[in-house]
Amino acid sequence: MISTLNNNVVSGLRHDGLIRVGIAGLGRSGWNIHAKTISTMTHAFQVCAVMDPSAERCDEAVHELGARAYRDFEGLIGDPDLDVIVVATPNRLHADQACAAMVAGKHVICEKPMALNTEDADRMIATSQQSGRLLAVFQNRRYEPHFLKVKNVIDSGVLGRIIQIRIEWNFFTRRWDWQTLKQHGGGSLNNHCAHLLDHAMQLFGDGEPEVFVDLKRSLTLGDADDHAKIVLRGADAPTIDIETSSACAYPESRWHVMGTSGGLRGTMEKLEWKWVDWSTMPARKLSGGAAQDRLYPREEYDWQVTAWELPADAVAPPILFYRDLEAALREGKALFVTPASVRRQIAVLEQCHAMCQV
What we know:
CATH topology of the largest domain: Dihydrodipicolinate Reductase, domain 2
CATH architecture of the largest domain: 2-Layer Sandwich
Number of domains: 2
Largest sheet: 8 strands, mixed
Helix content: 25-40%
Number of strands: 14
Shape: elongated
Oligomer: single chain
Order of helices and strands: HEHEHEHEHEHEHEHEEEEEEEHH
CATH class of the largest domain: Alpha Beta
């Protein structure tokens, strides 16, 4: 199905070379991320139409982008001049709108979370396959340099067998926007955790994790969670501890990795890791007798230490996402972030919601 879909995608492009985009939702993501990113990639993309219930935001897009404006989603996807629809509306609308756009013959970029349950995620994937339209989920943080470096270090084996990975993204802040309301699919679990879980599932490996979750309301003015603790574990996988909270006055580093040969820690800008080469260490034998000199056994480790810093010329993840999208649409190349890989994350989110009602 992948090769057939890719062939259909390439043949489905029209126009004189530009990929013509319609953006549904002109909020923080639709305007600040998608519209502004596309505006820097004028060799490949053009925002030709927008949709938002706010007349003021539509007028802004008409003035600044020269785009046509619609006040309803049906009008946007009915525009015959568009190749791609960006679904950047509230979370509860993602699945229905993405499917409607694909049925209307448009390729779709869907903001995270892809869906609120696996049934909707499966429906979206099935609609993509049946319509021959591309479904690209905007998990752009999978392109982040710090995550790719962490994955590279872990995959290299230098840290040995990975025992635990801790991923933290904490704040101390109050929020009172739509993302704090359950009726819109809001909450930290669907918002920040959609990114952290996406990273975690790439590091967890194959198989489905056993899940522990604790959700709380702390400083939010809405009724959805703004504190989430998730632990994933599996027989042949590292334990992954994920935490995002709006009630953390002392945030710690994003990454803390423990392995049998060493460890890694750091932020989105700086990472450091160290390891020991066990082949250079003396052999030890288990002793069941009394501790020598009544002390814990001790030895010195010749640590190998290295570090990484975010390159000054690092390309922003949204741009990398759109570059891959262009290659997928023009050349039929496989997406770096596939809907099937995001579906694994949605299964964990769904399980978390079912296990822990705020």
